[in-house]
Amino acid sequence: MPPLRPSAPPAARPKPRRLTCHGQARVDEYAWLRERRNPAVLRYLKAENKHTLLALADTGRLQRRLYRELRSRFRETDCSVPSPRDRWYYFERTKAGRNYPVYCRRRGEHGREQVLLDLNRLARGKPYLDLAAFAVSPDQNLLAYALDYTGDEVYTLYIKDLSTGRLLADRIRKMHGEAEWAADNKTLFYTVADACQRPHRICRHELGRPVSRDVPVFQEDDESFHVGLSKTGSEAWILATLESMVTSEVHVLPAAEPRGRWRCLRKRRRGVSYHAEHAGNRFYIRSNEGAKNYRLLSVPAAAPPGAPWRVEIPHRRSTVLEEVEAFERHLVLYERVNGLQRLRIYDVQTRRSHTIAFDEAAFSVGSKDNYAYYTSEFRFSYASPKTPESVYLYDMERRTRKLLKRDRVGGGYDPQRYRLQRLYARAADGTRVPITFFARRDRPNDGTGAVLLDGYGAYGYPNEAGFSAGWLSLADRGVACAIAHVRGGGEGGQAWWEAGKLLRKKNTFNDYLACAKFLVRGGYAAKGRIVARGESAGGLLVGYALNEAPELFGAAIADVPFVDAVNTLLDVKLPLTVLEHDEWGDPRRPRFYRYIKSYAPYENVKAQAYPHLLVLASLNDPRVPYWEPAKWVARLRAHGTGKKMLLLKTNLAAGHAGASGRYEEYRDAAFNYAFVLKALRADGWRPLAR
Prior knowledge:
Elements: E1 17-21, E2 24-28, H1 39-55, H2 60-73, E3 78-79, E4 83-85, E5 88-94, E6 102-107, E7 113-118, H3 119-122, E8 130-136, E9 142-148, E10 155-161, E11 166-175, E12 179-181, E13 187-193, E14 199-206, E15 215-219, E16 226-231, E17 237-243, E18 248-254, E19 263-264, E20 274-279, E21 282-287, E22 295-300, E23 310-313, E24 319-326, E25 330-337, E26 340-347, E27 353-356, E28 364-367, E29 377-383, E30 390-395, E31 400-406, E32 418-426, E33 432-440, E34 450-455, H4 469-475, E35 479-484, H5 493-498, H6 506-521, E36 530-535, H7 537-548, E37 553-559, H8 565-570, H9 577-584, H10 590-599, E38 612-618, H11 627-639, E39 646-651, H12 662-682
Parallel strand pairs: 34-35, 34-36, 36-37, 37-38, 38-39
Antiparallel strand pairs: 1-2, 3-5, 4-5, 5-6, 6-7, 8-9, 9-10, 10-11, 12-13, 13-14, 14-15, 16-17, 17-18, 18-19, 20-21, 21-22, 22-23, 24-25, 25-26, 26-27, 28-29, 29-30, 30-31, 32-33, 33-35
C-alpha cells in the first residue's frame, strides 16, 4: 500500500505575479498555471494526475466493486417512453456496452423504428461528445443538431434529411448550441457567441444558401446580457429572450413569417425578469414585476406593444411560480411551496386551476418530452432519493395520473431499507435551512456516523433531490447522504436567492456550516466525519467551509470549483465574467473587491490542517477554467499542514460537466466514492456490515 500522501509534484514555478487593486497589494505565485500553451503547465497537470492515481492505487479493488454496483443499478439496455408528435412517436434507447443514447422514432405507436441519430457512431474515436440543439422541422423531415467534441461549448450545427439519412451541405460552425425552425421548414434560427463565449447574436439561415450570407436578426451588445432562443409549445412563435442575471426582455416572431418583424413584449427594466409562453390566442407571462415570487399575466398575441397585461394568477407570498408549460387549453405551472415542488393545472378558458401534490419528504419534478400541443394529456418525471425516475401521464381534464414507466433498480434494491427525511438547521440569523437526509434505516444516529453533505447555493438554482445510484452505494456502507438547501439557491424563491448573493453571499457559506453543525449536534454525524461536496459554485462553498471550519470535515470533494473568484471576476476578458457580476459583484468596485476577497478560497488559504481533499478539474472547461482548481491545490499544498491526502485530478478531454459517456461517468463516480471511503477509514471510521 502506498503512503497516504505520496510525494507530490512541485507546486509552482518561480514566476509570482504581483498585483495591486484598490491600493491593496497581492501576490499570485501560481499565476503561471494560466499559461495554457506552456508545455510545462500540461506536464504539471499530468504529474498531479499521476500523483492522484498513486495515492488511490490501493483502492483499485474497491473502485471496481463500486463501478459494478453502479452499472447494476439500472438496465443498460433500455428505452424511454415514446412521446407523440403528430403521426410520429419519438424516443431514445440505450444498449449495454455503449456510452451514448440512440435517438429514434416510429410512425404510429407500433410502427417500424427509424434511427435519427446514433451518438455512439458519431463519438467513435472521440474522447468526448456533447449534443446541444436537437430540432426536428415542423414537417418532421429534417433534423438540426449541434455537436461539441471538446467540452469548450463551441458547437457545429448539422442538418440531416430524415427521409434519406443524408447530411445536407449546410454546416454552421462555431455556433452556440440553440437552434429553432421556422414554419416553412427551410429557415433555421441559431445562436452565436462572442469572443467571451457569451451568446450575443441570433442569425437566420436559409437552406441551400452559404452560411456567410446568414442574416443576424438580433445582437445584444450589453455584456451583462445573453441571448436565448426558443419556440413556444404551440410552435406558432419563436422567442428571443435577452437576459441578464436580474433582468430580461422577450421578443417574438411568428414562426410562419421568418422574414417578418420581431416584436418586443415589454422593454427591459432593471430588476424585472419575465418569460413568455403561448396558448390559444394569448401570451402567458411569468413576471416578477411587483411580485418577488412571480405571478402569471397574459396579453392577446395580437396586442400592440404597450397593451396592458391581465393578471391570471396574482403574487402569493408562500408560493413561487418557477416555470410555465403551455398546451392548447391548459397551462402546467411548476410551483414551489416551503421549498418543495408541486404542479398546478390552469384551464385557460375557465381560468380555474387545481394542483398535483407529492408526499415524500424530498423529491424532484420536471417536464418529460411533451411534444404534442393539441392534447389534454401531459407527461412529467418524478424522482426522489428513494424513488427511481418515474414518468407519469396526467389527464388535465379528468385529473387522473398514470405511471408509464419507472426505472428498474438492480442489485437487490429495496426502498424500504432506506429512510428519507427533511430536517432543518438554524442559521446564525435565525433562518431555517432545509436539509434533505438519506440513509439506511438500520444506521444509528448515535453521533459516530459519516455523512456526505452536498451544497450549491447560487444563481437562484434549487439543488433538487433526485435519485442517485451512488448514494445507494454510500448508504449501504453506512455513509448517509444529505443536501444543504442553502440561501443563494432557489428553494425559497427570489428572496432566498437574494439573501445569498452579492454583499450577502456569506449567508450561503454560513448556512452550509450551520447544516454541518446541526448534523453533529443531532447525532446524524460525528464531528470530523462529514464529507463536504460541491460542484462549480458549490466548490466555492466547500473551499470556504474548509478554510473556516476544517475540523468539521473528514474529507471533501470539490468538483470544477470556482475558487479563484477575485482574479476571475476582475478579468472581464474571460468567458462569462461580466454576466457573473450581477451574482457576485464587480470587484473593480472597492466594496465588492474587499467582500469577495474576504471569502474567496484561494485568497484565504491558511497555515492549518485541512481534511482529505479531492479536487476535480477539466482542461477545456469554459465556465471554471482548469487553472482555478490547479492554483488552489498548489497553494494548499504550500501552506496547509498535516498529512492528509491533497489530490488534483484533471480531465484532459472534457468540459465543465466532466466525462460525457455514461460508463466514464460511472468510473469517475466509483473513483470519487473510493476516495471518500478511504479517507473516512483512514480517520478511524468503520462501514456498516453489508
